[in-house]
Write a structure and sequence with these properties.
812 residues, alpha/beta, 31 strands, 22% strand, globular, binds adenosine-5'-triphosphate, binds zinc ion, hydrolase, PriA_C, ATP-binding, isomerase
């Protein structure tokens, strides 16, 4: 018998053939995790995964042997997941071992923490039946004495490595229990604070010029003697550390428990009856589940159309049919409200997976899903690999979010992987969004997916009215806030309603944005913003390499007021505070949300209406549902358009639609103000459409994409060569281009580059890109493997690193 396995370290991760003894043979299945050893050599033991079983044909006897089978002999990857990892390796042009590892939590892939405990076993009359071999006797005698040992200790005491199979037999007999125990000594420690016991009398007085520090002191006073984390106090670490320096506050370290908490909870909402359009969508979806056939739906529902209720009702039906489900969200921390709503409905039937879990919790969660104890897995990207059997549905919420793409190897897209998993499992896949990705919408238009439209908000709530504020021609209340927006904010505060303000992402520092007219110079061939290069003074396209002379003035209006220096959220917070001195302002950006649970805390405060203004970066655009928000304002709404990425318009449109959608979600109507520099941009023309603005934008933008062969009119593959020496990176990229051109006839695709990456140098390495636009078909994995090996071998001495990104989301 011959077995094809993949192991991480042996054979550089390429699959290889191993032998298995006759006695172990019947216990081995594809998807099993096994212990391997080299027959000759140092007897090193490694972990591998069984890819396939096949008869032994070659003359040459393999040198690797399978010693034992782990996890009780049950495959760690079920057939659908095996198929999925195979598809991923093939589609994303990466090694199978990388996709296998991506599909298993690290906590599952190790044996270091395996523990054996004795269960029900005494030396009674039945005992001889159990301990009927020398090995069983040795194990049970040791276990009776010790009660609990690590597998490693057992192996040493008995002097044998192959114990797993016998241990699992004893476990199946109910005599032993085999588990993983991760030491809890490594619990994360975090800084915590309390008021100094020797606080000077005049502390408050001396802090009157530092309002944040003063506030922190006041909150800490209410905690008495107990230590608290920065996010519980609601102050930044900088503020607290400044107080520590002054001797007003004491600092200590405390272990963090990693129990799941979004830091956000709402009182459970009363059960809602689906509206007629929700019901119609639901019927279509439930019908498909009962068919037990693969099908993908695109649920295109405007903001506030009640998609979450449809998901929840669908999941109830899936569970009732005895099936399981996966729910993907872009990032748990950013969407505590959504995660909370699911939990409220499914309690113990749902496992919420998140990155702050300890290894033990991750292992336990995996184990309970694998045993079918919990039926629904909810989490970010990697939750798509949840070890569930009998899948009925996979839901991908906010399917347009680029967080679904992993930006390290394997560079998979969780949405596309979800569709494939549904296909292999004969389940349905539901993609939901108010602003679907163009790829998904195009598939729906072509009939590959079934489109379900929800064009209206629930309960008669209306879509918010949008107004553009042209910054150049408008009076300003402060450096970044127009009179108009200011007066609108004041109006809402008067009515005791709430306001969300979005400080759009910092524009891309390397490209040009005219502060007078909003003009952004573009590559005439690629239609993406050109990037500034200092020597020689040029603007260059980082897709095709096209370069023009740069004159330091706007090519449209000749203004020299060009470089946009970002004004961060902190500065805007100050401006707002000056305009509304009495008002408490919540700020949500990377600085205020670095601590765990802090998103949830900020949102909870806003939800409880302890503050009426929430200011933040893109984070405030995601899925929030607060009925009292009647005004949304966006500062520099067009700045994201200067990012040198062909998706810049799509992303800006989507961000602005999403953030606008936070307004007027209840009976109170909402209004939205976008502060812009260039009113004429197509994105705004589309946003101002009262009806079907997404569809109109999609049509208009798709035509442009088609002309230049951008997705969804083609598929992109990005190749990156990086090196410490710029010319080496470029030479490797050029070699890559030549190899690709030989392989790709003109009617099949185009090869662009080499061009320096948008961010040309990262951590001392120069980066060059080759971009392939594939019109149809795909690149053959063996050819790509050959080419990568070739490039690596050729440029080994200059330390060139080579990577491939299929369907890249980030082209910087
Ligand atoms: N049938 C219903 N009856 C009453 N209220 C409902 C109903 N369905 C949904 N809602 C409420 O409508 C609001 C919007 O729903 P939800 O948050 O699911 O919208 P959404 O489609 O996910 O929007 P977005 O894309 O903006 O996140 C929520 O407060 C929800 O509780
Ligand atoms: Zn170009």
């Amino acid at each position: 018998m011959q077995v094809l396995t993949g192991a991480d370290k042996l054979f550089q991760g390429e699959p290889f053939v191993a032998t298995v003894s006759d006695s172990l043979k019947q216990d081995i299945l594809p998807g099993c995790m096994v212990l391997l050893s080299a027959k000759k050599g140092n007897g090193r033991v490694a972990i591998g995964y069984i890819l396939a079983l096949m008869p032994f044909e070659s003359e040459e006897v393999p040198t690797i042997e399978i010693l034992d089978v782990l996890h009780g002999g049950r495959p760690v990857l079920n057939p659908a997941l095996m198929q999925l990892t195979e598809w991923m390796a093939d589609y994303y042009l990466t090694r199978r071992i990388d996709t296998l590892m991506a599909a298993l939590p690290a906590a599952v892939r190790t044996t270091v923490h395996d523990v054996v405990e004795i269960k029900h076993f005494t030396l009674n009359a039945e005992a001889p039946k159990v301990i009927n071999t020398a090995l069983r006797r040795a194990i049970m005698q040791l276990m009776i004495r010790e009660k609990r040992l690590t597998v490693h200790q057992l192996q040493q005491r008995i002097g044998r490595k192959q114990l797993y199979r016998t241990l699992s037999e004893l476990e199946r007999g109910g005599h032993l229990q085999l588990t993983k125990r991760f030491s809890s000594t490594k619990a994360k420690q975090k800084s915590c604070y309390r008021l100094s016991l020797s606080l000077p009398e005049n502390a408050e007085e001396s802090l009157k010029n530092s309002p944040k520090q003063l506030e922190a002191i006041k909150i800490l006073a209410s905690f008495g003697n107990t230590f608290a984390f920065a996010e519980t106090i609601g102050s930044s670490r900088e503020t607290l550390n400044a107080l520590v320096k002054k001797g007003f506050v004491e600092k200590s370290q405390m272990a963090v428990t990693s129990h799941f908490t979004t830091g956000f909870s709402e009182t459970p909402q009363s059960t809602k009856t689906p509206t007629a359009s929700q019901q119609k969508a639901l019927e279509q979806l439930t019908h498909a589940v009962t068919q037990e056939e693969y099908k993908t739906f695109l649920l295109h529902g405007v903001t506030g159309s009640g998609k979450t209720l449809i998901y929840i009702e669908l999941l109830k039906k899936v569970l009732a049919a005895g099936k399981t489900a996966i729910v993907l969200v872009p990032e748990i921390a950013l969407t505590p409200q959504t995660a909370g709503r699911f939990r409220e409905h499914f309690h113990d039937d749902i496992t919420i997976l998140h990155s702050a879990m300890s290894n033990q919790e991750k292992y336990d969660a995996w184990h309970s899903l694998r045993l079918g104890k919990t039926k629904i897995a909810l989490g970010a990207r990697s939750t798509i690999f949840a070890p569930l059997e009998n899948l009925g549905a996979i839901i991908v919420d906010e399917e347009h979010d680029s967080a679904y793409k992993q930006d390290r190897n394997p560079r998979y897209h969780a949405r596309d992987t979800a569709i494939m998993r549904a296909m292999f499992s004969k389940a349905i896949c539901v993609l939901g969004s108010a602003t679907p990705s163009f790829e998904s919408y195009n598939n729906a238009v072509k009939g590959k997916y079934t489109l379900i439209n929800l064009p209206e908000r629930v309960d008669g709530a209306t879509m918010p009215a949008i107004t553009l504020v042209w910054m150049k021609g408008s009076p300003k209340a402060s450096a970044s806030i127009s009179e108009l927006l200011y007066s609108q904010i004041a109006l809402r505060l008067e009515k005791n309603e709430q306001v969300i303000l979005l400080q759009n992402r910092r524009g891309f520092a390397g490209s040009i944005f005219c502060l007078a007219c909003g003009h952004i110079p573009l590559c005439p061939f690629c239609n993406i913003p050109l990037v500034y290069h200092a020597t020689p003074k040029q603007l260059r396209c980082h897709y095709c390499g096209h370069a023009i002379h740069f004159t330091e003035s706007c090519m449209k209006c000749s203004s020299s007021n060009l470089f946009y220096k970002s004004s961060g959220t902190e500065r805007i917070e100050e401006e707002l505070q000056t305009l509304f001195p009495e008002e408490k302002i919540l700020r949500m950006d990377v600085d205020t949300t670095s601590a765990k649970g802090s998103h949830g805390r900020i949102l909870k405060e806003f939800h409880d209406r302890k503050a009426r203004i929430l200011l933040g970066t893109q984070m405030v655009a995601k899925g929030l549902d607060f009925p009292a928000v009647t005004l949304v304002g966006v500062l520099m709404a067009d700045i994201g358009l200067n990012i040198p990425d062909f998706r810049a318009s799509e992303r800006t449109f989507s961000l602005l639609t999403q953030v606008a959608g936070r307004a007027g979600r209840s009976s109170l109507p909402g209004e939205v103000y976008f502060q812009v520099y260039n009113m004429e941009n197509d994105v705004f023309t589309a946003l101002l459409q009262k009806e079907r603005s997404y569809e109109k934008f999609f049509l208009q933008e798709s035509a442009l994409r088609k002309e230049l062969h951008y997705p969804p009119a083609s598929r992109l593959i990005k190749f990156e060569c990086s090196a410490e020496e710029e010319n080496q990176a470029e030479a490797a990229a050029l070699y890559c281009k030549k190899s690709l051109e030989l392989q790709l006839p003109a009617e099949k695709g185009r090869v662009l580059g080499p061009a320096p990456a948008g961010i040309a140098k990262i951590r001392g390495r120069y980066r060059y890109h080759i971009l392939v636009k594939l019109f149809d078909g795909k690149l053959s994995p063996p050819f790509i493997k050959q080419m990568s090996d070739d490039i690596i071998a050729r440029f080994r001495s200059s330390g060139v690193l080579f990577s491939i990104d299929v369907d890249p989301q980030n082209l910087m």
